[in-house]
Amino acid sequence: MDSTQSLPGWHTRAVVGSMLLAATGYLGFALWSGWQEVLAAIGKVGVLGVAAALSLSLANYGLRFIRWQAYLRAMDHPVPWRPSLKIYIAGFALTTTPGKAGEALRGVLLKRLGTPYPTSLAAFLSERLSDLLAVVVLTLFGLTVYPMSQPMVAVGAAGVVAAFLVLSSQGLLQRLHGAVTGTARIASLLRDGLQVLLQARRCHTPALLAGATGLSLVAWAAEAWAFHLILQWMGLDVPLGFAVFVYAISMLAGALSFMPGGLGGAEFAMVTLLAWQGIPGPDAIAATVLIRLTTLWFAVGIGVPVLSCSLDK
Predict the structure, then answer these.
(1) Which of 2, 10, 32, 210 is deepest in the core (most CB within 10 A)?
(2) Cα–Cα distance between 159 and 297 in angstroms, integer?
(3) Exposed, middle or buried by CB within 10 Å (0-12, 13-18, 19+), for 261?
(4) pTM, whole model, 2 decimals?
(5) What are the CA-CA distances from residue 178 to residues 163, 164, 172, 173, 188 (Å)?
């Protein structure tokens, strides 16, 4: 696959298509909720408050980048931090694809630097698994407070356990990889998928798993804290533990929905839980829109220009 020729296609189909769809849907949600409430919330939070929320989002991205570099090193394909950081940020442009699958575009850009596709895809898969594990752990802050969320958390936890069981079965993966023969496209895809899983195993040694999990927990807790601060600055009395729970369960709901960027699922969960806590509907919607603008859409906003520059090279 010629990466230099494949990038424009990715740009047209993935970036433009997914972003327009997601942005249109989000604009509709914001207009439906009422821009007056959102603007009022921004006014209460203030410039410094918005800057603080954006800074915590940057901390999230930075910690996840450190984890990304650790995964690449573990698979014997380290990349200098400057070009790797540009590629990592460029991937945020495709955060609004279902399950964030578009972030796998980083593999196309890394191929220019000699990183094989199985390696970059294994790093991407490991990232998603690490994020899921961290979010599931953070939901424990309020699981007893809101028992109705327990089935969703159980599904997320079961997914984590199943993934680790698969990755721990090196012998089985190797036997399956050797057993898949033939030149048919389905056989080739199976071999490639098994090769990615075999590579991903190297990202989940005990030491690296502990370090990556710690980075993931702090990264997602930073954005959850930003959510708590926004609620506080809006004058809404929500305990820190419950705010962390609401943010984490909303991210889990968005991930399980497989909607672009978790759109719809995450927002519905946030608004519902805040309303359950007694927050007035307009305030709950405004806080939800504001935190998503300073997290999800901030990532997209910094990713698009970096990706555009990468495509022009």
Answers:
(1) 10
(2) 27
(3) buried
(4) 0.88
(5) 21, 21, 10, 9, 12
